[in-house]
Design brief:
alpha/beta, 280 residues, 7 helices, 10 strands
Length: 280
C-alpha cells in the first residue's frame, strides 16, 4: 500500500486540508514526530491509530541516521500491509522531518510507495498573521535563520527557525530592513505573538518566523490608485494613492495609463491584477 506524508498546517487543527483529514481518517496507523503534531492529529484520529517513533534530540549525524533507519524499519511493514501516515506541522516538503523518512525508505525499503499531502505552511500563513500583502511582482526569498543567522540581500525575506531573535534583528536592521516577528502562529493551545520588538522574543523558540522588508520594496499595484480620492471610479477628483509605498504621481499624466488599464480590465471582466509597470 502507501505511506502518506500529511501536512497538518501551522498548528490550528481547523487549518488542515480536507484531503489531509480524509487521509488520516482512513489510515491504519499514524506516526507523529512530536507532541505538537500529535496534538493536531488526535483531533482526527483515535489514540489506538497512533504509532510511536523515537527521535533523539541531537546533532550527531551518525545517531540521527541510526534513528531514521529504525523509524523506517518500523514504518515500512505498516505501509506494506495497509495505509500509513506520517504527519508534520506545515507542509511535508518545506523544512520538514518527513524528507529524512522518505530518503531512508527510498534507500532501504524501495518497495514502499510514498505520497505527500500538502499542508498550509508558515510560508503563506505568516502573511495573514502579520497583516502583510505580498503584491504581484514582489521579490520574496525563504531562508532559515537558526542560531542567529540573518541572510540579507533581497527586498523581502521570510526567515524560518529564528532561534536568536536579538542577534538576527541586529544584522537585518543594519542591512536596512524593517522586521516583524511571529512566534507559534496559529498553534492550538499556544499564545501566538506578533511583534516588531526583538526584546519581547529574547527567549529562544524554534517556532519563530521573521518577515523582513526594505522600505519602498517592490512595484506599486495599480489598485493603489483607489486611494482616499481617485478618478478611477469615473469621478473628477484628484488621484491620491492609498499607501506609503506608492510611487504614483498625483497628477493625471502619471495616473492616466494605470486608470486606463483598470477601466479596460473592469469592462472586460478581467480578474487579473494590473500593475504600474509601463506597458505590462
Amino acid at each position: 500500500m502507501t505511506l502518506y506524508g500529511v501536512g497538518l498546517g501551522p498548528g490550528d487543527a481547523g487549518l488542515i486540508t480536507v484531503k489531509g483529514r480524509e487521509t488520516l481518517e482512513r489510515a491504519d496507523v499514524v506516526y507523529t514526530p512530536g507532541r505538537l503534531s500529535r496534538g493536531v492529529a488526535t483531533e482526527y484520529v483515535s489514540e489506538d491509530q497512533l504509532g510511536d517513533l523515537d527521535f533523539p534530540m541531537t546533532r550527531d549525524e551518525d545517531e540521527l541516521r541510526r534513528a531514521w533507519k529504525a523509524a523506517a524499519s518500523e514504518v515500512a511493514p505498516a505501509a506494506r500491509e495497509g495505509t500509513a501516515a506520517f504527519v508534520t506541522l506545515g507542509d511535508p516538503n518545506v523544512y520538514s522531518t518527513f524528507g529524512h523518512l522518505r530518503r531512508t525508505l527510498d534507500r532501504f525499503h524501495p518497495d514502499v510507495d510514498v505520497a505527500t499531502i500538502p499542508g498550509v505552511s508558515t510560508v503563506t500563513a505568516f502573511a495573514t498573521a502579520f497583516g502583510v500583502e505580498i503584491t504581484a511582482g514582489s521579490e520574496l526569498v525563504l531562508r532559515e535563520a537558526a542560531r542567529g543567522a540573518a541572510p540579507v540581500g533581497p527586498d523581502r525575506l521570510v526567515l524560518f527557525k529564528v532561534t536568536d531573535v536579538p542577534a538576527t534583528h541586529e544584522t537585518l536592521v543594519e542591512a536596512g530592513y524593517e522586521v516583524t516577528y511571529g512566534r507559534r502562529l496559529f498553534m492550538d493551545g499556544h499564545e501566538s505573538i506578533v511583534t516588531d520588538d526583538p526584546t519581547a522574543l529574547a527567549e529562544r523558540d524554534y517556532y519563530t518566523v521573521a518577515y523582513a522588508e526594505k522600505p519602498d520594496a517592490g512595484e506599486t499595484p495599480a489598485t493603489a490608485a483607489f486611494g482616499e480620492e481617485t478618478t478611477a471610479d469615473g469621478g473628477e477628483r484628484t488621484c491620491r494613492t492609498a499607501g506609503p509605498r506608492s510611487s504614483l504621481d498625483a497628477n493625471a499624466s502619471s495616473a492616466g495609463p494605470i486608470l486606463d488599464q483598470l477601466a479596460a480590465a473592469e469592462s472586460a471582466g478581467d480578474g487579473e491584477a494590473y500593475r504600474s509597470g509601463g506597458d505590462r
